[in-house]
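How a chain folds remains the central question behind the approach discussed here. The record that follows shows the chain in one-letter code together with its fold in token form:
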Amino acid sequence: MSKRIKIGLIGCGMISGSHVNGYLAHPQHAEIVAVCDTVDANAQRRAAEVLSGAEARANSAIADAEKADTAEARDRLKENAARWAEYKDNGVEIFSDYNEMLKKCELDAVSLATPPFAHEAPTVAAANAGKHVFCEKPMARTATEARNMRDACDKAGVKLAYQSGGTCLDPRSYAIREYVTSGKIGDVHYGRLTSYRVRGRPNVDMFGFGKWFLNSMYSGGGTLYDTAVYLINRSIYLLGSPQPATISGIAYRGMPPEYTGEEINDVEEFASVFVRFTNGMSFTYENGWSCNMAGQPQGIFIFGSKGSFSNDKLFLEKGEWEIDDQGNRRRYRENLVETPLELPDMHFPDKFRDFIDACSSDAQPVSNGDIGLKVTEIMSGALLSAKLKREISVEELYEIEALRTEPTPGWPIP
């Protein structure tokens, strides 16, 4: 049996359950050996869930092995069952301080299931300890925090994965990126992302979320940081990871019914962002937790000189010139044809396996620190632009963030 990547889970709140299930799904390649949370009850509960989850999977695999159709399938199930059964003997260590966990526990990587305000410090600490990092979305509250995280991991030679990379790990995303970056749809000059809910604000229209979602000091922002982050991440991947140059954003808060709780609510409910990239492309991002619009096309739309993508549908322009009797061109007759997308014949891992594989190889995670940084530059830059009511450059974004005297929160929307 191969060596498994030993994982320490930092943060044992609601979202950490997906991390536990994500690593348990790959028993041959990863093992959760420790959990950490400042609230002891959360850490105790999550550690117990790791053990009970592993036991349940082991029992299920043993039962399935008896009914397996092939010897190969039976052997694989038995091997997985043996790996899950090891959790009972090895146990899961519990910590209240991630620095203590990094010092005392034998780890290869950490998985951050903490809110945005608790991403930078543990990432830098883990990198300095030589551990790979899988980080929840959003990567950080500000571009400066994201850059510090990326630089710390690069300097230490460890991998930094960014959770929303799961939006890119499929055959269609891979194929679209190939069409865009190879020039098959010509010069890609513009794109548009549209995504919104009628009402979908955490702790207003939807409940069971951390109160930090509505406070820019802790979350960085609202709808951009919570939901748009997934599609912004995917768009950057599909476009071949271009570097944002300038950002212009507007943001709005105040959709009825208004928030009536006692906590701070200063994050955007709707945002529109225009980004110019250094390679000449430009992109508009339109996203909302709340807006009075329904039934309109949503998704990612990419415009090229020879074709386009409407979400996952490929259209190629195959028009011809209309010729007169003397052979002269009269006018061009366009012919936009929906064309089957050539999909790769290859396996795509889930986001946790993608991270695990990167930890064991020279490969980078599909959504790594560089992509996470670009996404954060767009989000933080959009809200700063909305505050200043003008377009800003990425360089200016870092300069203004450096001028702050308070701890680096997000940009509150009045």
Q: What stands out?
A: The CA atoms of residues 318 and 335 lie 5 Å apart. The domain at 168-347+366-402 is CATH 3.30.360.10 (Dihydrodipicolinate Reductase; domain 2).
